[in-house]
Automatic annotation (TrEMBL):
Molecular function terms, GO-annotated: peptidyl-prolyl cis-trans isomerase activity
EC number of the protein: 5.2.1.8
Family listed: Belongs to the PpiC/parvulin rotamase family.
Protein name, UniProt field: peptidylprolyl isomerase
Length: 263
């Protein structure tokens, strides 16, 4: 229902915070007198493991080699005063600000109120919003030109099977599936396309091609049905994400309101 990346983002920030908060580790290496902290190496190892890698001497050796190369490059960049360039300063400031913000959110997250009552209240709110929602089963054919799309429409009207036309003519990967996009809700469809789709009869094809960034679209409405709201249990992870997002927004707004902001 809402952004599923939130908890992943929080988890990454929490990991960074935990590494930062642990006891100081032995330096991973020293380059021209500059120490590369063991915490940096451990963070890279943890990130690789989180992505499916395996903590091993070989992985650590490869990461250490990469860190040494980065440090050599960074030192040379500073020698050439690249760190003083306005654009580089701006990027460094953005990266530092983002890391600090994520770390603060991770530290505050355990205090967020993600109770059963909150989850059920969010479920009720979203269920009410979706009470009258509909889903549309759609197939489409995408062509590079308007002329090709018009030819597809004519062929469909002459009785050619839409799924076969999709396999032969569509430039979209969905062509291999007969052009099927499956079941979509209105808010998942390009608004310009949805205005046309909502007025199509089931089984009918759009009478004129529609220009989109992907190409010229020819669409068939295969079916329409009322959206069935999933159960509370089936929605639980999405509800946790939604409540977390609300708690995060409230936390941020509280800090923003307390800040002295001049523009």
């Amino acid at each position: 229902m809402l952004n599923k990346k939130l908890l992943t983002l929080c988890a990454c920030a929490a990991l960074a915070f935990q590494v930062h908060a642990s006891e100081p580790l032995k330096p991973a290496a020293t380059v021209n007198g500059v120490k590369i902290s063991g915490e940096v190496l451990e963070l890279l190892v943890a990130n690789n493991v989180a992505q499916g890698g395996k903590d091993s001497p070989e992985l650590r050796a490869a990461l250490k080699t990469e860190l040494i190369a980065r440090e050599v490059l960074a030192q040379e960049a500073k020698k050439q005063k690249l760190d003083q360039e306005p654009s580089v300063k701006a990027q460094l400031s953005l990266q530092q600000g983002a890391l600090l913000a994520d770390t603060l959110i991770a530290k505050a997250a355990p205090k967020f109120n993600i109770s059963e009552d909150k989850l059920r209240a969010e479920y009720k709110r979203q269920s009410e919003l979706l009470a009258d929602a509909e889903e549309y089963q759609i197939s489409h054919i995408v062509t590079a030109s308007e002329a090709e799309a018009k030819a597809v429409i004519k062929a469909a009207k002459d009785g050619r099977a839409f799924d076969q036309l999709a396999r032969e003519k569509s430039t979209s990967p969905t062509g291999q599936k007969g052009g099927s996009l499956g079941w979509l809700m209105g808010n998942q469809i390009n608004p310009a396309l949805f205005n046309v789709i909502a007025n199509l009869a089931e089984g009918s094809v759009t009478s004129v091609p529609m220009a989109t960034p992907e190409g010229w679209q020819v669409i068939r409405l295969d079916g329409k049905r009322k959206f069935k709201v999933p159960s509370f249990e089936d929605s639980k992870q999405q509800l946790v994400n939604a409540v977390f997002a609300n708690e995060r927004a409230e936390f941020v707004q509280k800090l923003v309101k307390a800040a002295k902001v001049e523009q």
